[in-house]
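Look at a sample.

——
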Amino acid sequence: RRLALRDALGAFFSSRALVWAAGIAAVLIFGWDHAATAKYDHAHLTAPFSETLPNLLVSPAARWDSAWYLSIARTGYVLQLQTVFFPLYPALIALSGALGGGHGLDILFGILVSAACAVAALYLLHRLVSLELGTRIARNTVWIFAWLPVALVLSAVYSEALFLMLVIGSFYAARRGRWGVAGLVGALAAATRNNGIVMVVPLLLLYLYGPRADREPDRPPSRFFPRHRLRPDILWIALVPVGLLAYMVYLKLTIGHPFDPFSHQIHWGRRFVPLGGIPLGAWSVGKAAVAALGLDPKLTSHVTVTGQMRHVVEFAFFLLAVALLRLCWKRLPIAYTAFAAIGLALAVSVPTDTDPLKSLPRFTLTMFPLWIALGLWATERRRVRQVIAISAPLLAAMTLLFVSWTWPP
């Protein structure tokens, strides 16, 4: 436990030092983008203080979706389009009001919640990987994870840190055979993000196929036939959908539209096209290449350099995720592979017209088995330092783009 906590704290705070340095430097070098702030945060929730210094200090943690979480924490669900942001994280931020805090305390409380959840998630990740692969790979996985380019949101006013803590905690509880805890924590995950409901699948697979610490298998190892017989404690897994159902009941009672979290994805330009983001993403990369080479003057004039880079980076993350998913299948229990595969399939099935793989890099962050696979690969090939060395400048660059309102993660 001490080793896990030491690695979690070391990896988190060392990477946050870079995030804060890059974020503050971005503001000092490029200044405040008042036009972007007015467009994406007209209420100035991400810069709530009357003085420049405190706004500067919180800038690496509050941009883009942060404004939506802060607005929900302050006033609840006023607009139907807000319902795509699930309630548990803004509800935790809203506790700052119950503490009698003044103006701006909510953003500080949001950063504190994210940071605490991130450290807890890294700690649980260390403990979980230690069970499966040993402490050396666990340590390397935690450090690689904290330094991933998209890991900047672990300390931002975003729900990723909370969601990661809950899904990894649910995995860890199930792995130890504590099915009541696994189901309850899974329900909280389902109340945190719209893909939390998929926790039902890996929990069932862990129950049926293992590995499990609560009892010996009833049958020999097999990839196709369950090793454990059904017993009454499997019913704990039915708690997972309760998180989503509770949110839908709340919406029915307050605004009268329980299905808004799904139907209002169209407001954000997303539409459900099964795996449609893959061919559309490849097509976008092709257009970006044509524009970059100047082969089509009309296309070149309509596609910005930032847009070209975004399409390429997002598709590169997709290819990396597929390669790591293949390694998951080879080296990790089937429950881990299933969780990552379902998450990736959902992420590439809601494309937008202009950006088919929008936010895919950030979505992959919560597919933690992929990064366990990367930690395993890097450890076995003695490439851990190289992986972190490549990630560090990318983390700084992603933070700079985030803080300058240039590129949402």
